[in-house]
């Protein structure tokens, strides 16, 4: 076990920078924190680089999991507070490699496709919902919020370790879906589209959710096999993106 006692340690300084997308991209690593996320990673046998925790946090974790001693770093309370991106740190962290494939063929299954979603909470919630509904995976467009953003990680609650998640050019992904016979449905705010109430569940599909403010992009709408909408019964103009996604995901699950 390694011990680090100073916030000025080079390793701690490097890990602190992982809050920044550019540094995550440069190092191809990201940081998660909290017992739930760390435990989900361990349960799913993720190939972690390091686990960092205070003495008390490590004792709690090792009571249930066997850790690789050369990959465990004991830190002080001050360092834990320094690394934390939350107000109430649980004093346990894990460093993981980013393993995004350079290319991907989307074969049989049910997928959610996020077209330029920018709110970390929405993205994390949709991924968690897709996981709960038994979908095979989620595709984020390159313009969407970074999958490894700390807020996205917290919102997913470990679902990133259960289903496939790919950040990929969206039109290329849609092309792959169509080549493999997977129909592409896009949600739009237009009553000329087909009401969700009149859509039956299908064995496979790619369900596109558009940007929170502007909806799905024009090119995506034009390439979709079916345009759908959720009927609004009250006076609200629209639904939150994550809520709308949840309704449609469970409809097609």
From TrEMBL:
The keyword Iron-sulfur does not apply. Pfam families: MRM3-like_sub_bind, SpoU_methylase. One of its GO terms (cellular component) is cytoplasm. Residues 31-102 form the RNA 2-O ribose methyltransferase substrate binding domain. One of its GO terms (molecular function) is RNA methyltransferase activity. The keyword Lipoprotein does not apply. It comes from the Bacteria. Keywords: Methyltransferase, Transferase. One of its GO terms (biological process) is RNA processing. PANTHER family: RRNA METHYLTRANSFERASE 3, RRNA METHYLTRANSFERASE 3, MITOCHONDRIAL. Belongs to the class IV-like SAM-binding methyltransferase superfamily. RNA methyltransferase TrmH family. This is RNA methyltransferase. It comes from Lactobacillus gasseri.
